[in-house]
Amino acid sequence: MAKYMLIMRGTDESVAKMMETPFEEMLETVGRFNEELIRAGVLVAAEGLDDPSQGVVVSFDGEAPVVTDGPYGETKELFGGFYLIDVASKEEAVEWAKRLPAFPGSKCEVRRVPGIEEFPQDNEWIVKERAWRERTGQL
Amino acid sequence: MSPAATDGPPGAEAARRAVEAVWRIESARIIGALARYTGDFALAEDVAQEALAQALVSWERDGTPASPVGWLLATARRRAIDAFRRASALDERYAALAGPLAEGQFSTGGSGAPQQPDDLPWDPDRVDDDVLALMFTACHPVLSPEARVALTLRVVGGLSSEEIARAFLVPVPTVQARITRAKKTIAAAHVPFELPPPQERHARLGAVLSVLYVIFTEGSTATAGEDLLRPDLAHEAVRLARTLAALLPAEPEVHGQLALFELTAARFPARTGADGQAVLLEDQDRRRWDRSAIRRGLAALGRAASSGRALGRGLGPYGLQASIAACHAVAPSVTETDWERIVLLYEALGRLAPSPVVELNRAVAVAMDQGPQPALALVDDLAVSGKLSGSHLLPGVRGELLARLGRTTEARAELELAARLCRNARERAVLLRKAAALDADG
After folding, report:
1. Is residue A107 helix, strand or coil?
2. Hey, of A20, A92, A109, which one would you mutate to test binding to chain B, going by the most B CBs within 10 A of its CB?
3. Whether A37 contacts chain B with CB within 8 A
4. Minimal Cβ distance to B25: which of A32, A95, A130
5. B237-241, B285-289, B395-399: which range is least confident on average?
6. Residue B201 in 3-state DSSP?
7. Would an 8 Å CB–CB cutoff place B429 in contact with chain A?
8. Do B112 and A101 count as a contact with CB atoms less than 8 A apart?
9. Phi-psi group of B170: left, alpha or beta (phi > 0 → left; psi -120 to 50 → alpha; rest → beta)
10. Which strands make up the sheet holding A107-113, listed edge to edge?
């Protein structure tokens, strides 16, 4: 078994469509999909992000970081949220990704999440991170 | 190119993996729905397997269909109708199949458009009951224990006969024969495809839990062979236990079992060394334990306790075993483990579900809590009873206790006996290492 992150990326177009969809309907569609993941015993974690226009972007182009509103008004892919699932194979992760309730114009990246046990266990920073994970019961 | 791309025929291997992935996710719902429609569990499994075989051929040739599930279900349904035609069984069941389930009514709305319940290939209000009924059928008491395990992994878990055979180190034809025989037995005994009636439910749930437990235990300590662990098999048991917990949220023991599995599986990363040798609990690097699994296990244990309280019950056998696993999971080291509590939990477990293995484990906990002498007395009583004769477990523990008491010669003989009886190569190596270490000391 391995953990995969399904990274959902929308565009302004798909975000706009989402905003037009009645909230109740969205809840039901997404809820139904989430329930499938739970029933299949593969869901580990999931979060979705707020309206991108409420966010800010910190850019590192010049001498000092520059803060602008956004991201919005671009047709680039916008990170919208993620699922973390525990499945037997990459193909299974892809199969779940294909079932995402997604609007046209959006994409989903399927990426494996390496476990902390894959890192050198004697590295002081890995030791510190382990201690934090232990204290907080993090993934 | 992704293996599941639809824009051209992918390679045979990629197609096979894509089909397997869909199958693992869907097999229970597909077979469950078919079993309910046809009223014939064996037929449902047959036609589902035929559809799977067909998919392996067609998807490689034509690419994966837009709705893999709809395709599998429609194909299986066609096969079922053909089978009914061949049997000239033009009865109500055939009418039911040919009527409302006419082709084209199956689509999963996989385009991402919001789905209406009637777009689904099965009735969402019934699918949970179908999957549950499938679990109860696959674990039915009319079947032999081996058959229950094979059938559960195949119809509920979506594993192939080859995968099951690999997991249990038995020949593929053996697994196929077990499954064929199991289906015939279910048909011969007229086992209805339904949820057990309330008065049978508790006992029947126990049978399902036992099967999942066998699958998990085989994955977490392989009874034979070269590998200590078969994590894929253990994880499949975890996945099935999660499904069962989602379907039966009011059942305390379902959560107790899930907690036990999560907490035990959390130790997997630390249980084998770099070269695959077994690492004992006291030597394990606890930093390698999977903290997220521990967190999930403790949460499930909390649900086991609260759902038990709601029914006016304490923890059951699985909940107690999970509590013991939790004592280990939260302890920073062997010496800092709450052994006294573990002894009490084993005593409670011994009263609810008496077994010689529980007695032996209690003796180990007593040794940690009070020292080797009182523990040896318990182990000797067990040895006299002859309940564990032929198993390597008892001489393994006895040798360990004798060594701690400085009775080296006897200890070595016991450990060597244990090694001779042990069928797992990795465990055997540990026992021989211990015996050899005594030579160095004594």
Report:
1. strand
2. A92
3. no
4. A95
5. B285-289
6. helix
7. no
8. yes
9. beta
10. A43-48, A78-87, A2-10, A107-113
A-chain residues near B279 (CB < 8 A)? none
State both tokens at A4: 């995969």
Res B441 pLDDT > 70:
no
Mapped onto helix, strand or coil, the DSSP state of residue B106 is coil
The tokens describing A71, both together, are 């991201």
- Per-residue pLDDT at B182 exceeds 60: yes
Residue B191: name the closest of B247, B128, B138, B244 by CA: B138
Q: Which has the closest alpha carbon to B130: B51, B237, B31?
A: B31
In single-letter form, the type of residue at position A89 comes to S
pLDDT tens digits for B326-375? 999 999 899 999 999 999 999 999 999 999 999 999 999 999 999 999 99
What is the C-alpha to C-alpha distance for residues B286 and B266, in angstroms, rounded to an integer?
Answer: 10
Residue A115 contacts B, CB cutoff 8 Å: yes
- With beta carbons under 8 A apart, name residues in chain B contacting A96: 25
DSSP assignments along B266-287, one per residue:
TTHHHHB-TTS-B--GGG--GG
Name the residue among B2, B231, B291 with its Cβ closest to that of A137.
B291
DSSP string covering B151-181:
HIIIIIT---HHHHHHHHT--HHHHHHHHHH
Distance of CA B49 to the CA centre of its chain: 21
Measured between alpha carbons, how far is B370 from B405 in angstroms, rounded to an integer? Answer: 13
Establish if B124 touches chain A: CB-CB under 8 angstroms.
Answer: yes
Q: Which residues of B touch A25 (CB under 8 A)?
A: 114
Q: Does A91 touch chain B (CB under 8 A)?
A: yes
Whole-angstrom Cα distance, residue B396 to residue B433?
12
Separation CA B163–CA B175 (nearest Å): 10
Convert the pLDDT of each residue in B391-423 to its tens digit: 899 999 999 999 999 999 999 999 999 999 998
- Touching A: B residues 225-254, CB under 8 Å: 231-232, 235-236, 238-243, 246-247
Phi, psi values for residue A10, rounded to 5°: -110, 175
Chain B hits for A130, Cβ within 8 Å: 287
CA within 13 Å, CB half, B382: 26
Chain B neighbors of A92, CB-CB under 8 A: 21, 24-25
Residues in chain A within 8 Å Cβ distance of B249: none
Q: What backbone phi and psi angles, to 5 degrees, belong to B156?
A: -95, -40
Distance from CA of A93 to the nearest CA of B (A): 8
CA dihedral A47, A52, A56, A61 (to 10 degrees): 100
* Chain A CB within 8 Å of residue B345 CB: no
Cα–Cα distance for residue pair B78/B72, rounded to 1 Å: 10
The pLDDT of residue B90 is 53
- Residue B276 region, left (φ>0) first, then alpha (ψ -120 to 50), else beta? left
Q: Sort out which chain A residues have CB atoms less than 8 A from B232's CB and list them.
A: 1, 88
| Residues above pLDDT 90, as percent of chain B | 60
**SS3 call for A67:** strand
